[in-house]
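User: Continuing from earlier, I have the next pair ready.

Assistant: Great, send them over.

User: Here they are, in order.

Assistant: Folding the first of the pair now:
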Amino acid sequence: MIALFIVAIAGVLNVGDRAMSGGRNDRLVTGTQSVAPADAPRPWDRWRANIALPLPRLLVQIVLVILVARLFGAAARKLGQPSVIGEMAAGVALGPSLLGALSPHTYQSLFPASSLGVLGLLSQIGVILFMFIVGLDFNWAHVRHRARSVVVISNISIVLPFLLGVCAALALYTEHAPSGISFRAFGLFMGIAMSITAFPVLARILDERRLLDTPVGAMALSAAALGDVTAWILLAFVVAFVTAAGSITTAAVTIGTTVAFAALMILVVRPLVRPLLSAGAGRDAFSKERMAIVIGIAFASALATEVIGIHALFGAFLAGAALPADDAFRSGLHDRLESFSSVLLLPLFFAFTGLRTQIGLLDDGRSWLILAGIIAIATAGKLGGSAIAARSTGMDWPSSFVLGALMNTRGLMELIALNVGYDLGVISPQMFTILVLMALVTTAMTGPLVGLVQSRSGQA
C-alpha cells in the first residue's frame, strides 16, 4: 500500500510538471539566478557553501571549541593543573596567537570577524550563568566563623596589589591607555586586575589537594570569598565611573541605584521567592516550574544591573547569593547548571577571550619585560600581601605562604574582569594580552607552589 501511494505521488508530480512548467524544465532556479542542469553546483561545492552560512559556521565553532577545550583540560590535569588552566589555554590556542599564526586561512575560515558577534553573545550567557553559580556557592558562614582573620587577610590581599597596580599604571598609562581614557579609569582598572582571586578555581584546587577541611584551606576559602565580593564592588564602581564619563556624581547615582537594587533583592524578592522554592513532602525540588523561577530570577537580575550600568554579571552573582534555598537545593542546582555551563558555554567564553588575545602584539623585548614586570607585581602584591597578613594573624610561615599562593589564583574571574575592561575600552589590545597571560601564569603557579611547600613541610 505504501508503495502504491509513492507511485501515485510520483505520477502526479510528473504529470503536473509536464503540464504546468512547460518549457521551463530545462533550467534550475537557484536563488535569484537560473542555471542549466549541467551547470548545477556539485554536492561538495554546495556543502562548502552551506558551512559558510551563519548557523552551520556557529555549530562548527561550538563543536571545535568543546573538543579542543576537553583535550586541553585533560592535558592540564595530567600535568597536575586544574582543567580550567587547559581550557583557558585552549581559548588562546584557537585565536590569532596560535591557530591564526600557523594557518591564517583556516583561522579566517573558522572564525571570521562577521561571526564573532553571535559567539560573543553566547559567551556572555555562559558568564552570566557562571556568575550565578558562583553566587550559589558563596556562603557567608565562611566569613562569620573567622571574621577577624578573614577581614585582615582579605582586605590586605586587595589593597596592597591594588596599590601596586595603580603605581604600575603611572608607568604604563602614556603608552598603553587607549585614547580618551583618563588616568583615574586606567589606574583603577589596573588595580582591580591585580586584586582579583578566582574563588571557584581556588575551591577546586583545595578540593584536589585535599585542603578543604584544613585550617589554611578554610581560611583561604573564606578570605577569597570576602575578597571577591570586595573586588567586584570595586569593579562595579570602576564600570560606573567609566560609563559616567568620569562624572563622580553620575557614578555615585549608579552605585546608589545598585545598592538599592541589592536591598530589593535581599529584603523583598528573597522572602517572596522562599515559599515558591520550598519543596514539601512528595514534591519534586527541581521541577520545571522551580527551575523556571530560578533561571528567570538570575537573568532578570542580570538585566537589571545591565540597565543600571554596571554589567549583567553583577546581577547574576547577586541573584545566586540571595537565592533563598537550603544547602541541598543549592548543591543540586549547582550540579545541574554547572555541567551545562562548563561543558558548552564557558569554553565559548575562553575561545572568545582567546580570539581577542594577540600574543603577536608583544613583538619586542620591552613588551615581554612589561609582561614579566606585571607578573612580578601581581604575585608580590597578592601572594606576598596575603602571606604577610596571614602571618600577622598567628599562622606559621609555611601555612601563610600556602595561603598566599592560593590567593594568587586568578583564573576565570580575572578573564571576566579583563573582558569587561576591554569592552569598556579602558585597556588596549596589547595590555589585554599582557593581563590575560598574567592570569594564566599566576593561576598555573598555584598548584606547584602549594605542592612544594607541602612536600617540604611533610604535609603532602
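And the other member of the pair:
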Amino acid sequence: MTGTLRGQTVAGSWIDGAAVETAGAPHRVVNPADGSVVAEVALATPADVDRAVASARAAFGEWSRATPAERSGVLGKLAELMERDAQTFIAEEVAQCGKPVRLATEFDVPGSIDNIAFFAGAARHLDGKATAEYSGDHTSSIRREAVGVVATIAPWNYPLQMAVWKVIPALAAGCTVVIKPAELTPLTTLTLARIAREAGLPDGVLNVLTGAGADVGAALSGHPGVDVVTFTGSTAVGRTVMAAAAVHGHRVQLELGGKAPFVVFDDADLDAAIQGAVAGALINSGQDCTAATRAIVSATLYDDFVAGVADVMSRIVVGDPQDPDTDIGPLISIAHRDKVAGMVSRAPSEGGRVVIGGEAPDGPGAFYRPTLIADVSETSEVYRDEIFGPVLTVRSFTDDDDALRQANDTAYGLAASAWTRDVYRAQRASREINAGCVWINDHIPIISEMPHGGVRASGFGKDMSQYSFEEYLTIKHVMSDITGTVEKGWHRTIFAKR
C-alpha cells in the first residue's frame, strides 16, 4: 500500500539543476479517483522555455564529451536511487493518474528502473566504425555523435515510463534534454529530475517544464535552440508538433495513437485469447495506445469469444486505486470519461451492440465500467477512432485474407496481435500486418531490449532498445589522407597542367 498525497505545493519546473518557481498561472494536479487536489504548481511560460533551452545548450558541450563510462555511471546510479525511492514514485503515479497501485508497483516503476539500467549499459556500446581505404589514398571512419539539445513532450497516461523512454536514451547518447510532462501528471518527472541530480547528472543536462501544450509545448517544439523534437501523444497534436519543428528543420520522433487489431484465428486457444483480450483492452483503464481495441475473430469462434470476454469483464474490479485488489482505476479526468461515454453511447446507432458495460458507476471519480461492443461495422466511430478507454469492439471474419484485410483497415499502425497455433499463419500475420509491433499469442508485453514505435498515423522512430539511439545520434564521416602528398590525384580536375 502506498501513501496518499494531498495538496502539496511543489515547484512545477526544474531548470539548470534546481527547482524553479515560474510566473505562470497556478495549476492543480487532481486525483481522478476522488477529485482531491494532489499538488499545486505554477505553470511554465514561453520565457521559461527560453531559459531551459539555454541551460541545456550550455550543458551540452561538457555532457557530450563525457566518456561513455561516465555517462553510464550516472545512469546506473540513477537506477539505484529509483529503486531506493520506488515507493515515492508509486505514490505519485497512483495519486496523479488514478493508476491502480498494483499496476504502478508491478509495471510502471520497475519497468522504468529496468529501462534506465538497460541504457546505463547501452551507453558504453555506442561504437563508431573504422573502415578501409575505399579511395586508395584515404582511410574512412564513422563517428556517432550526440545530436544536441532534445525537446521532449510526454503524455499523461504513463508519465514516468514515457519520461524515461524519451529522456534516458538521449542522456546515454550524450544529449541534453528539456522535457514537458503533461500538466495533469508532472510529479514523477519532477522527482526523476531531482534524483538524477543526486545521481551526479550535471546541472542543465535535464530540465523539466510543467506547462500547457498550447503555449509551452508549442514554444518548445518550435524553438530554434533545439536539435531534436520527440513527442508521444495523439496523432492530431503530433502533426502540429511536426509542423512546428519543420520550420527550423529539426529532426522529429513521434509515437502517436493506435487502434490495435487483435486477430483470433479459428485454431486459436480460445481461453487464452479471451483472457488476453480483456487484459490487453483494459490495462491502464484502456488508456494505452497499444491496447487491444479491435478484436477481429473467426466466425466459428465469434459467439463463444463474445460470451467469454463478457464473463471475464463482469468480474473485473473497478475501484479505489490504492486497493491492491483493484483491477482498473478511473480515467484521467471527468472530461475524458465523458468523451469515452459519448463514443460508446453513439455505437448502437451505427449497428454496434453493447454486450456489457457502457456506463459510469455511481459515485465520485472519473470511473467507467469495462465495455464490450459486438457486431460493430467497419465504418463505425468506435471501430475506426481511438477511444482511449476500457472499451473493446468485436467483428467477425470469414477467412485469413479477410482477417488480415480488416487488421490493416486503419490509419494507424502501432501494434497488433495474432492468435493461432499454426506457425505458418503466425508468420504470415507477422509479415502482413502493418504495425510496428506484432505479438503472437499475447498482447501488450514490452522489454527494454526491443524497440517500440509505429508506422503511418502512429508516427515514426523508436523508443527503447539500441534502435532508439538513432534518434539522438548523428553520423559523421571522417576521411583522412594517408599519402602525405601535396598534389592529390583529383586536383587535376581543378588545376590546369603547369
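Worth noting for the second one:
Residues 134 and 140 are 7 Å apart (CA to CA). The longest strand covers residues 138-146.
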